[in-house]
Amino acid sequence: MPTLVYSGTAAQFGTVDSATVVVEAEYFMAANIIFKNSAPKPDGKTPGAQAVALRVSGDKNAFYNCRLLGFQDTLCDDKGRHFFKDCYIEGTVDFIFGSGKSLYLNTELHVIADPGLSFITAQAREYETEDNGYSFVHCKVTGIGTGTYLGRAWKSRPKVVFAYSTMDSVVNPLGWSVNLQPAREKTVFYGELKNSGPGANPAGRASFTKQLSEAEAQPFISLGFIAGSSWILPPPKV
């Protein structure tokens, strides 16, 4: 697989512009490509160490069998409707973040071991009128350790769903975080449906999360979530 790699950091360019690749076009498709930010792993002390591998800011963008490699802020799922299928995304903290409306299908989310807290998503919805969120369907959460949260409430009204996914013990039993802001317990939408694995036990989940019924989850787990039937095409055969 070809690799597109650069070492930009937030200290140099600002977080969102540190990306190795930035997509702003509509109807962009990538298949069988590695997007990588080769900046060193943040040490938790050096400011501006965030380093984005891919920023997706276009509408109707699709990614097939792509690998996104980085540490903090690997994927800026910035805005627009996006489809990720058969991909691999790795990182440490907030490694999928932004205000996109995206469906992730059969994709592996791999947490790189970190002695501190780790968060997979930092979905950035702030207002009830915003139509965005992330849905992970038939995905895998893998990694080493036990302290990783599926998401944190970076902004006030994040919307994230995991359905029919497998979760290793890397996932913290609480599952989700309100980012030390208790008021957000009433505004977040963190939902799960029929996940499996040692990290998916609903008994230990934070009280503000939702175990969804099939009917409640339906709007999130089909292509209709991103109006995909009107624009998604299969990947090229190469």
Automatic annotation (TrEMBL):
Residues 12-228 form the Pectinesterase catalytic domain. The keyword Cell membrane does not apply. InterPro entries: Pectin_lyas_fold, Pectin_lyase_fold/virulence, Pectinesterase_Asp_AS, Pectinesterase_cat. It is found in: Secreted, Cell wall. Pathway: Glycan metabolism; pectin degradation; 2-dehydro-3-deoxy-D-gluconate from pectin: step 1/5. It catalyses: [(1->4)-alpha-D-galacturonosyl methyl ester](n) + n H2O = [(1->4)-alpha-D-galacturonosyl](n) + n methanol + n H(+). GO terms for molecular function: pectinesterase activity. Its main location: secreted. The active site is at D94. Its EC number is 3.1.1.11. GO terms for biological process: cell wall modification; pectin catabolic process. Gene3D superfamilies: Single-stranded right-handed beta-helix, Pectin lyase-like (2.160.20.10). Keywords: Aspartyl esterase, Cell wall, Hydrolase, Secreted. Belongs to the pectinesterase family. This is Pectinesterase.
